[in-house]
Every structure is written in C-alpha cells, then in structure tokens.
Design a protein that fits this description.
There is one protein chain. The protein is 60% helix and 9% strand. Helix 3 links the parallel strand 3 and strand 4. By secondary structure, the chain is an alpha/beta fold. Strands 1-6-2-5-4-3 form a six-stranded parallel beta sheet, with helices on both faces. Strands 7-8 form a two-stranded parallel sheet. It has three domains: 130 residues, Rossmann fold; 68 residues, Orthogonal Bundle (Helicase, Ruva Protein, domain 3), CATH 1.10.8; 118 residues, Zinc Finger, Delta Prime, domain 3 (Up-down Bundle). It is built from 14 helices and eight strands. The mean pLDDT is 85.
Length: 327
C-alpha cells in the first residue's frame, strides 16, 4: 500500500492501530527532520518494545536481521529503524528485498530514505510506503502550514490564517526553522490566544534563513570559516542542500551531460548562479561533495546521540572540508 500524502498515512495508522499494523513501513521524504517526524508518528502507534536505530551508511545486515528477531527482555516486540536507505550498497538492497519477499513474522521494520529506492516496490507489496518524494512545492507548503496550525493548537494558541504564509515567506519551507519560530511566537504572545501577522513581523527574523544560507554557501563553495555554533540545527540542512547541489552539478559534468539537459536536473537555480557553480563544481569534483555529505551525516548523527559539543562538530566539518579541497 502506498500513500502520497501525510494525512492519508496518518489516517491509516489511526485506523490500523493497534491490531492491524503492518510489519514493514518505508518513509520517503527528502528533508531529514520531516522524515524523522513521520517515523516518530509511526512509533507512537506501534506497541511498546525495544527500539534500535541504524543507518544505511554503516550497517551489517546480519545486525539488522538479528535485531529484528530479538524480542525485548522487558517484553514487547523489536522495532528496528533503518534510515538513510539510499546509502545502502546494491547487494544490501537486494538482500533486504529478498527478506521482504516473505512476511515478517516478528518485530517491526521501519525504513527511511531521502528519495526513490528499489526497496519501495518490495515494501509496498508487503507493507506500507509513505512517498513524499514527488511532492509538489505548493503541496509541501500547504502541509507545512497545516503543521504550524497544529503546533500552535497543541499549545492552546490559534495561528491566524494570514500569519502562516508570512512565516513561510520570511523563513522558507525549512521544517526545523519553522518549528523553532512558531515555538518562539507561542512564548512571545504569552496569555494571548492568537498569534497574529504583526507578531510574525516582530519576532520572525527574515534574515535568519538567509544568513544560514549564506554561511552554508561560504563554507561549501568558498572555503570561508564563518560558523555560528548556536545555529547548528538550522545550518545542517543548509549545508546539505549546498553539498547536494554541488554533487548534482559535478555529476552532470563528469557524465558529460549536454548543457541543454541540465535544466531538468536543476530547475530551481538561476542561470548566473549555475554558471558560477559549474566552474567551482568542476574544480572540486564529485568526491569533494560526496565526502562532505558523508561527514555531515556523521556529525549530525553524533549530535543526536548525546554530543553537546556542536561547536567542535562544526569545526571538524569545516577543517575536513578544507582538507578535501586541497586534495
């Protein structure tokens, strides 16, 4: 079963829980925080049990299968989350597809990926797929706006209809930044029950996302050293976006794709910017951006598993990127 929108997926979970849930779910969402939020929604509907998190960037499949079939000492079934499935090796993907050919007898397998994966067909056949990989920009904005209204409602506040579009306009469609801004607004209005458009003007700084974007561009493309440790969780998505863009351009160059076909791969980049990035990407090469994405994933994982030294993690990223550029 496949769901192309979050609301339908959530309705499925509500109706299937607790006795008719599937054993396998696949979540396809490009944004890491939104994907994690969808997985958290899934977890809230699953019965209590041990949870193990794994990454496709570094996994031994025997550990995955053992974890899935190992019941918790405290009762309940095992829940195994395998994120970053797009980083699995071809042989690993084939092994998981073979595993999914037969119904899972125990435990729950939750898969996550940033985009299309060969696992989708097997997961859809034996489980449920939430696929937002082809979500249109206007559908994403509508979904994010609805999330903002719900977040305000959960705090007993009403977000006025004209405030949400202004938030998106000033902050952009970054889920983590928007969540932070709506929380600030909830605190700002205090005892008032409604968050107005004027409150957004006063509190939501339009320059923040722009500043983070500039910082990420400087680090990835220019090798500048400006970093703000306090902006770690907002900066990571901006860095990933720049590295992914560089990877696409460098791959197009390496594959000798005709320039006339580039627009289909890069629909949202201005021609003048593309010309500049083309020269830079050609100089840096595919390996530079790939190493950067791998390293970014590792430091983000460290930040989520207890490390509070986000400044040191950013310093590691900056120095490593400089060393990659010199090779």
């Amino acid at each position: 079963m496949r769901y192309p929108n979050l609301k339908a997926f959530e309705k499925h979970l509500a109706s299937a829980a607790p006795h008719h849930l599937c054993r396998c779910y696949l979540v396809l969402i490009a944004d890491d925080q939104e994907r994690q939020q969808a997985i958290q929604t899934l977890l809230r509907h699953l019965p209590d049990g041990s949870i193990q998190r794994m990454s496709g960037a570094e996994i031994k499949l025997i550990d995955l299968f053992d974890a899935l079939q190992s019941p918790s000492l405290f009762g309940g079934e095992a829940v195994v989350i395998l994120d970053e499935c797009e980083k699995l090796a071809k042989g690993q993907v084939e092994s998981i597809i073979d595993f999914l050919e037969k119904p899972i007898q125990a435990g729950f397998l939750l898969l996550g990926a940033r985009g299309k994966t060969p696992l989708a067909k097997a997961a859809e056949k034996g489980g449920v797929v939430l696929d937002l990989s082809d979500e249109k920009p206007w559908d994403k904005e509508k979904r994010i706006s609805e999330n903002l209204f719900e977040r305000a409602k959960s705090a007993a506040k009403r977000l006025s209809p004209d405030a949400a579009p202004l938030l998106l306009e000033r902050i952009g469609p970054d889920a983590s930044l928007l969540a932070s801004e709506i929380d600030k607004l909830i605190c700002y209005v205090g005892d008032r029950l409604t968050i107005e458009r004027a409150d957004v003007y006063r509190i939501a700084a339009s320059s923040r996302a722009h500043t983070l974007w500039q910082m990420a561009e400087g680090i990835v493309w220019e090798g500048t050293s400006a970093l703000d440790p306090n902006a770690f969780h907002g900066l990571v998505p901006a860095l990933r976006s720049q590295l992914s863009l560089g990877m696409k351009i460098a791959s197009l160059i390496e594959d000798q794709t005709p320039m006339g076909e580039w627009a289909a791969h890069l629909p949202k980049i201005w021609p003048k910017t593309l010309e500049k990035r083309k020269e830079q990407a050609a100089q840096k090469g595919v390996s530079f951006f790939k190493k950067g994405l791998d390293l970014l994933f590792k430091i983000e994982l460290l930040s989520r598993t207890g490390s509070t030294q986000v400044g040191a993690l950013l310093d590691l990223f900056r120095s490593s990127m400089s060393s990659y550029a010199r090779r």
